[in-house]
Amino acid sequence: MPGLLQTCEELFETRDLYKVIGVENTASEKEVKKGYYRMSMRFHPDRNSDDEKSTEKFQALSKVYSILSDSGKRALYDESGEIDDEADVDQDRDWTSYWRLLFPQVTLQAILEFEKKYKGSEEELEELTAAYQEHEGDMDAIMDSVTLATMEDEPRFRRLLQEQVSSGTLPDFPAFSQEQRSKKQHRKRKAKKEAKEAEAARKELGMDESEDALKKMIAQRSQSRESGFNSFMADLEARYAPKGKKTKKGKK
Fold it and tell me: Is residue 240 within 8 Å of 202, Cβ to Cβ?
């Protein structure tokens, strides 16, 4: 069985535990936890059913966090660049349960509040520019990477990125500046299909678009999937939250 560092190299193309969760090696405990949360949400199996490696990635992320969140284990890793897999990583741990212990259950209000603060923030811009560079301007990958991004955000993202490309802050990747129209249309069709599927799921439960209905739908889904993860419902909450109110916005 390969060690954690080798696993990270195979799954994330790096042996640097900090890069795996997207933080600097000077990150605070809070920043480490935040990086882990963001990356684990991105790679959780329930959100990536088409990725056969998603379970391995999610488990690897949890193991990385278990090391970087422990001051002693982190100090040892910082000093040597290596870890003792047998001593430092609990191979038998239920990593999904571990995740749920660290983070409270996602609620509609929490998502709305987070979205309100995140959209248009410096943090979102940093994540957007990082995704642009990581994926060399591929908007498909960028839209999949940025937290809470929907097709409605793409024009804004393009404007922000183009401003930085024009100023020389970011490189001009052909995948971005010369993206074919057919690729853009395919992305829009995919987004519409996903929205239609989510809408069908809502209607199947006989729900309207009120906040109370969303909460009821969440509760019903939770009861039927007690052993699973609630990220799918988080997507539905964000996508179908009531619109038109200044203090609330919604999407996937």
Answer: yes
Q: Averaging pLDDT over each range in 31-45, 79-93, 150-164, 194-208, which range is the top one?
A: 150-164
Read out DSSP for the chain?
---HHHHHHHHHS---HHHHTT--TT--HHHHHHHHHHHHHHH-GGG-TT-TTHHHHHHHHHHHHHHHTSHHHHHHHHHHS---HHHH--TT--HHHHHHHHSPPP-HHHHHHHHHHHTTSHHHHHHHHHHHHHTTT-HHHHHHHSTT--GGGHHHHHHHHHHHHHTTSS---HHHHT--HHHHHHHHHHHHHHHHHHHHHHHHTT--SSHHHHHHHHHHHHHHTTTS-SHHHHHHHHHHSPPSBTTB----
What's the rounded Cα separation, in Å, for the pair 111 and 27?
25
Task: Pick the closest to residue 102 from 147, 40, 47 (CA basis).
Answer: 40
CB 187 within 8 A of CB 139: yes
- The per-residue pLDDT for range 157-201, each reduced to its tens digit, is 999 999 999 999 999 999 999 999 898 888 888 878 776 766 665
pTM of the model as a whole? 0.48
**Contact of 45 with 54, CB cutoff 8 Å:** yes
Mean pLDDT value of segment 129-137: 92
Single out the residue of 98, 94, 157 nearest to residue 124, CA to CA: 157
* pLDDT tens sequence across 21-31: 989 999 999 89
